[in-house]
Amino acid sequence: MQRLNLKYPFIFILLVLLQVLVFNNVYLGGYLNPQIYVFFILVMPVFITGYILLLLAFALGLVMDVFSDSLAIHTFACVLMAFFRPAVIRLFAGNLEQETTESPSFRSFGAFSLIMYSFVLILIHHLSLFMMELFRFDEFVQTFKRTLLSTSLTLVFIMLAFALVERSSDGKRY
Amino acid sequence: MQNLFKFIHRYHFFFLFLVLATVALALTISRQQYHQSFFLHSANRFSAGLYETMANIRSYMSLKEQNRKLMEEYASLLGDQDESHLNRDTLVHESVDENWQTRYTYIHAEVINNSVIRRNNYITLNKGSLHGVEPDMGLITTEGVAGIVINVSRNFSVAMSLLHSDMLVSTKISKNNQLGTLSWDGINYRRAVMTYIPPHVELSEGDSIVTSGFSTVFPENVFIGTIKDWGVRRGDNFISAGIDLALDFNKLNYVYIVQNLFKDEQEELESLTHTE
After folding, report:
1. What mean pLDDT comes out for the span A105-130?
2. Average model confidence (pLDDT) across chain B
């Protein structure tokens, strides 16, 4: 458990740096900006205590906002995403035993459930993020289109990240 | 009260979410309205430092590109400069008076090449035949005589500077109209020599020397300089005077090319007279 916890600060910092320094400079098609940093919220242990999840999500969003000069829209999106996470887990992986310390992964969730779980939460995050960014409801169709495309793009990177994490932890067997 | 705490404890996840979401929303809305500076700003020391480091690294990576851009921009600026353009301005400055027929017109020109260190110095101008410049036209400035045009191309002309061994200018002393010939001895570009001043003429330091107007090149009374010193050369019946030139040839920028409209008539008549 102790060693397991060390993994998360590392992932946190790595994701923030990757997002700020690399992915924030990626604009596919002119306006598709993958938000890979939400992987941190997705990868935390399945049955992490609720308020810790919320506070960590809040902190993560705040850091992103500080770097992006974006008011508190990332903070809001992250908190909202963290709030829906337990429900989404119950929806797609309700059969998991309560005592597991495992993270969501291909092994623990299965590929389909993991993809659906990630997709729904990323969609919630991106939709709230882009709506907050726009801060009005006209242009909703265009914003929604942008949200869907960005979500798909982020999902690809997130799945790649899940595969990488699973591979690296395979040899260690926490 | 007990029940309230129980209730909050039971739904603490939801309440914490509400609190955090409200804080985020409040931060967004308040900043959206007032744009007040707060800690959520990339100008803070931590994130600004990181961005600055990254920008430094990026700028090093792109130095070559930046250099190329800079050179391109500089080249385009150079092209925009006045110096890069041939002046196609054919405007001729002349005064019109009903009682007086115009004798001299002036074409303003810019000096684009000049020297003072040779024995025979030349001045290149940015006006040529296109602008009406012809050989043997005089060059004057507001300060004094500068030279005589000797070669003309379509857009440029080259003038013999006053600082030239072949340059002889018919001059007179302003106060008494005594004539002399101005030439340059090739020593000091601020000094010229006025020769063939009759020995009876009284000179004093600071006397003004102007053009005589006898040649077809320069109008009368164009200022040249002032007398500095004088003497009679050995075996010579005339006084030679050292003249301080008013015009600093090392700073020559703009000149006026003198166009004498009656030059042909005068020269024709004079040559006719001489051949008789």
Report:
1. 90
2. 79
Q: In terms of pLDDT, which residue wins out, B233 or B245?
A: B245
Q: Is A104 on the interface with B (CB under 8 A)?
A: no
Q: List, for residues B82-117, the tens digit of each pLDDT value.
A: 554 555 556 666 555 566 667 788 888 888 888 777
Q: For residue A61, give the chain B residue with the closest CA.
A: B24
B174 neighbors B191 (Cβ within 8 angstroms): no
**Distance of alpha carbon A135 from alpha carbon A73, whole angstroms:** 10
At position B253, the amino acid (one-letter code) is: N
Could you tell me the two tokens for B131? 């602008």
Query: Hey, where are the domains in chain A?
Result: 2-170
Out of B17, B24, B42, name the one closest to residue A72 (CB): B24
Right CATH for A2-170 from 1.10.1760, 1.10.10, 2.60.40, 3.40.1360:
1.10.1760
* Per-residue pLDDT, A98: 63
Helices A2-17 + A50-68 axis angle, to 10? 20
Q: Single out the residue of A124, A108, A119, A120 nearest to residue A47, CA to CA.
A: A108
CATH 2.40.10.340 spans which residues of chain B? Answer: 93-261
pLDDT score, position A2: 46
Q: Are B130 and B155 in contact (CB under 8 A)?
A: yes
Residue A173 has pLDDT above 50, yes or no: no
Has the ipTM of the complex gone over 0.85? no
Cβ of A62 and B40 within 8 Å?
Answer: yes
Closest CA to A166 of A116, A112, A110: A110
Encode A45-79: b = buried (16+ Cβ within 10 Å), e = exposed. bbbbebeebbebbbebbbbbbbbbebbbbbbbbbb
Most B CBs within 10 Å: which of A56, A79, A132, as the mutation test of the B interface?
A79
Select the residue from A74, A76, A78, A125 to test the B interface by mutation, using most B Cβ atoms within 10 A: A76
Contacts of residue B196, Cβ cutoff 8 Å, sequence gap at least 6: B179, B180, B181, B238
Q: Is the distance from CB of B126 to CB of B156 less than 8 angstroms?
A: yes
Cross-chain Cβ contact B41/A69 below 8 Å: yes
Multiple choice CATH, B93-261, 2.60.40.4070, 3.30.360.10, 2.40.10.340, 3.40.50.300: 2.40.10.340
Min Cα distance A173 → chain B (Å) is 31
